[in-house]
Amino acid sequence: MDTKNKEEDFVVEAGKKNLITINIVILVIFLLIIGGVYYWVSKTSKGQQVFPAGINYLSPKGEEAKKPVLLYDFAKLSESSDWVTYKGKAYSYSFQHPKALAPLSFPNDKSDAVTFKVNELPPEQSLLLTVEIVSSRDKNLVGKPEEFAKNYWKFFSGLSGLNKIEPITNEKGLKGYKAAYLVKGSKTVTSDNYFFQVEGNDDILLHIGDIFPTEGKAVLNRLVNSLEYLK
User: Fold this and answer.
1) Are 25 and 53 contained in the same domain?
2) Are residues 126 and 192 in the same domain?
3) What is the predicted pLDDT for the residue at 168?
4) What pLDDT, on a 0 to 100 scale, did the predictor assign at position 126?
C-alpha cells in the first residue's frame, strides 16, 4: 500500500515539474518574440527614440518631445468651402468652423463655452471659446480689456507672468488683444489667447484659446477672423 502511494506521489511530483518546465519555455519564447519586435521597431523608426507602448518621441535637441497625434487633415480643413456657423447659447457671438468639427458645449455653463475635439486632452480641459465675465475675475478691470489680458495669468496658479501682448482686429472689425503667458517652473510659453471686446458691454470679453496643434494654425486664424458679436 505504501509503495503504491509513493508511486502516485512520484507521478504527481513529476507532472508538476513538467508543467513548470513548460511554463518556463513558453515565457522564454514570449520574451524572445517581444525582444524581436522591439528590435525591429527600433531599426525601422529612423531618427526616433522608441519607447514602450509604441509612443515615439522626436529628440533633435536631446530633450523628449511627444509627437502629437493629428486627428484631422488641418490643411484641407483650412481651405475647405464646407464651413458652417456656430452661435452662442447664452451670448450672441458666432463664428465659422469646418463642418467636420463637431462643436462641444456644456449645459448651463455661465461662460457659454464651446470647443472641438482637436487634441488629446479632454474637451473640458481644452476650451476654444469662453465668455469672460470681467467683474467675476476682478471688478477693477471692467472696461480695461488690455489690462485684463495683461493680468489674466494671475487668475491661474500654474502661470507666472505675461510673455507678450499685442492689439488685434479681426476681419469682422472686433478689436482686442492677443497674449501669451509664462508657465510657472519652466521656460514654456502658453499658446496664444485672444481677447475681443464687445461694444456696449464692458463687462464681457470673448476669449479664444489656441487649442489646435501647429498644423491647425490656418484653421484657427480663419475661425478667429470670422468671430462676430450681434447686438
Assistant:
1) yes
2) yes
3) 98
4) 86
CB-CB contact of 142 with 135 (8 Å): yes
Give the 3-state secondary structure of residue 160: strand
Q: Is residue 67 part of a domain?
A: no
62 has pLDDT over 90: no
DSSP state letter for 189: B
Answer yes or no: is 11 within a domain: yes
Residues 6+ apart with CB under 8 A from 199: 229, 231
What the block records as the C-alpha cell of 143 is 472696461
Chosen domain end from 13, 34, 62 = 62
Name the grid cell of 48: 526616433
Q: Which grid coordinates belong to 147?
A: 489690462
Instruction: Give the whole-angstrom CA distance, residue 222 versus residue 96.
Output: 8
Question: Contact, 92 vs 230, CB < 8 A?
Answer: yes
For the entire predicted model, the pTM comes to 0.70
Q: Give the pLDDT confidence of 7-22 residue by residue, as tens digits.
A: 555 444 555 566 667 7
**Where do we find the cell 463637431?**
102
